[in-house]
Design goal:
Layout: H1 5-25, H2 41-54, H3 60-73, H4 76-88, H5 90-98, H6 100-105, E1 117-121, E2 126-131, H7 140-143, H8 148-151, H9 153-161, H10 163-169, E3 179-184, E4 190-194, H11 206-212, H12 215-219
Parallel strand pairs: 1-4, 2-3
Length: 232
Amino acid sequence: MKTSRRDFIANAGAAAAAMHDLAHAQEPDHEHEHSLVPSDPALRVKSLESLLVEKGLVDPAALDALIDTYEHKIGPRNGAQVVARAWVDPAFKKRLLANGTATIGELGFGGRGGDYLVVVENTPKVHNLIVCTLCSCYPWAVLGLPPVWYKSAAYRSRAVIDPRGVLREFGLDLPQDVEIRVHDSTAELRYLVLPERPAGSEKLSEDELAALVTRDAMIGVANVPLPPGVRP
């Protein structure tokens, strides 16, 4: 599906903020002092786009192609494929947990935000939660652009101080005997959660399993939902 100009403007704020975070994360001496997104990023991006197009420096079709790439090719769909493969292929799962970077490369994923990837597995007794306390480092290669809430100061601070409370606010109320492990991403190291495979999904194909996996589950603020028609 072609991305319209209106869609570009609607998503430009998140994209601009993510590009800002990536640029600063790659600066070795950066102290991560910038954490607030401008109040009107969409307007600024729209104005910049109009100016560049008017001067003939940017091709609108190229912008649409770039947006489509990040929305439909570099995004949670990639991570969902990784998770589904790990659920159906024990050998792949073993390699993934041992070396996330190399193993996602087997599926053609990698590059920025995926150069140093560690995959952590949820179990009935351990739940993993991903945060970047200093900025908003994020595994672009498998999750695409980070959600706005992931970059917020509230999430970045409270995920460490009160992870159980944060999860409850996302609708995930874990039993007290489940250990919550918080992993702090950096410019050098990113994390991906391998969620638990939901009950009742034993007969689903790999593609059907991938369709169940959500971005939030791979960050750790949610579990993968049950397949349609399956009761908890």
